[in-house]
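Sanity check record (used in CI):
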Amino acid sequence: MNLNATLLAQFVVFIILAIFTAKVVWPPLVKVLDERAKKIQEGLTAADRSKQEMIAVQKHVQSELAKAREEGQKRVQEAETRAQQIADDIKHDAENEAAAIIAQAKAQAELQIRQAREELRAEVANLAVKGAEQILKREIDAKAHADLLNKISAEL
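Expected output for ATP synthase subunit b:
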């Protein structure tokens, strides 16, 4: 075999192989590589978009948490205010009730004092009548002298 012929045959086979590879094998291979690069780029874009959305959601969550805390503090403050108002109302009602009980007790005491005075007047009048009876040594008719006895008891 001739070295030149072998080299020429190898060169022709290489050219045919290169043309075959360039026409048949290379385009699908480039297409697959382009599709893979496109998918990777889409994945990176989606990851960036997801990252931005996650940041926005985190900001929104922080905002909502701050609003919830503020609302909770507001409700606690309102509850404390309402509790204080209820306590003040109860205290005021208790003071009013105590004042009413004291007024009622004073009225009852006044009534008892009046009743005791009336009883004392009646007893003093009876004692005066008995004393006068003994002084005069005669019996005084209480019914006949009712006006006089009423006048005496009013003076006492």
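The mean pLDDT is 87. If this sentence no longer matches the regenerated tokens, the check is flagged for review.
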